[in-house]
Amino acid sequence: MTENLNLFTSTQVVIKEALEKLGYDEGMYDLLKEPLRMVEVRIPVRMDDGKVKVFKGFRGQHNDAVGPTKGGVRFHPDVTLDEVRALSMWMTLKAGIVDLPYGGGKGGIICDPREMSMNELEKLSRGYVRALSQVMGPAKDIPAPDVFTNAQIMAWMMDEYSRIDEFNSPGFITGKPIVLGGSQGRDRATAEGVTIIINEAAKKHGIDMKGARIVIQGFGNAGSFLSKFLHDAGAKVVGISDAYGALHDPDGLDIDYLLDRRDSFGTVTTLFDETITNEELLELECDILVPAAIENQITEKNAHKINAKIVVEAANGPTTSEGTRILTERGILLVPDVLASAGGVTVSYFEWVQNNMGYYWSEEEVREKMTEKMVTAFDNVYTVATTRNIDMRLAAYMIGVRKTAEASRFRGWA
Ligand code: NAD
After folding, report:
1. Which of 167, 294, 318, 359 is least crowded, fewest Cβ atoms below 10 Å from its Cβ?
2. 262-287: pLDDT as tens digits
3. What is the pLDDT of residues 206-220, one digit of tens each?
4. Is 106 a known active-site residue?
5. How far is 47 from 26, CA to CA, in rounded Å?
């Protein structure tokens, strides 16, 4: 897909700029500009109709100088090698930003899980682990859920790895059901992390979250949890959207009512007559705008018209580089995706730590530890951005890539 190619090349551009600002030479960029390992596998699965279908899967391991690589596995018909390659690099950045002892990894299988039975999905999940077990493991590369994968799929994958390894290996994968060693709070971690980041950004702009006007694009996993957390904290969610349109109420939408009525794909606007478009939603006057749907939503075409004080990217890649430049010039604080959505990998790390210790924390302990990590990460990025007079995306990339660059240099890799 072209946009994923763009995602890959635009990630490379910012990594290069970040390394230059940190004083690294061309050799370091050469090392970090793509993953150290990209594996492509083919997985035969006997389907319910008795025929064998062969699925293509990928795993990208960007750099393991700091520690094992870590990142989700997505099941989607549009997964490509380039997408997995780019996303594995993003995971290095996220792990660096929240200071985890990991490098970045990512995986995917080209398939449509919505059209597969549970039996077929189980065989495919187990087949993926068998195909990659030599290069994955609790101390090598640790997968997690991503688009269209869930706790059940993680459980099958963990069970398959445990059979191959001949040990119970909960630390092989994160995002597991709680009874198999999953962490409290993992399912809501991303939205909670975004909420923490929104609170920190609001403080910097002197915005009181009680009564703050929020617009959220996307009402899926990320957007719906987020709207609930912000609404419960006293903010006024004045706009939400899904793929079919958007809802606007300057007095604040009834979030609990909308959550009750949304379907499992995050669709709710189709139930209403009075809707606006997603384009109009993005230009609504508000304090905080949160793109939480898809990529390339704020571009050179509409960045001039954004009417928010702060934009927090909960989705991956919602703002193009031109969009970033325009918002920054207009004095709108843009908090980048690699920082804002790092709550998921943070709690995944906590899950792995708990598995390694065999000792489990309460939801409250997990939340406290995550809050500490996210607040510190925000402060670090904000300080670099303001002291160096650069946008928060570049600042986040500088912090995100530094640990891996330094570890690689000590190891003699660059
Ligand atoms: P999801 O599939 O659950 O929901 C997506 C939402 O976006 C739905 O409401 C859908 O209707 C809407 N949408 C789809 N196409 C749209 C369009 N063209 N215009 C407007 N809205 C559209 O997905 P999600 O898990 O909520 O993820 C959303 C974004 O957040 C993605 O970029 C994802 O990578 C990112 N993200 C999610 C998580 C997570 O834990 N869920 C973690 C990190 C990043």
Report:
1. 359
2. 998 889 999 999 999 999 999 999 99
3. 999 999 999 999 998
4. yes
5. 49
Average pLDDT value over all residues in the chain: 96
Ligand 1 contacts (CB < 6 A) are: 190, 217-223, 241-243, 266-267, 278, 292-294, 314-316, 341, 344
- List the strands of the sheet with 52-61, edge to edge: 37-46, 52-61, 103-110, 69-76, 141-145
Query: Active site residue: 16, 106, 123, 309, which one?
Result: 106
Residue 360 CA, ligand 1 centroid: distance in Å: 30
State the distance from the centre of ligand 1 to the C-alpha of 20, rounded, in angstroms: 33
Token pair belonging to 215: 């617009």
Closest-CA residue, ligand 1 atom 37, reads: 222
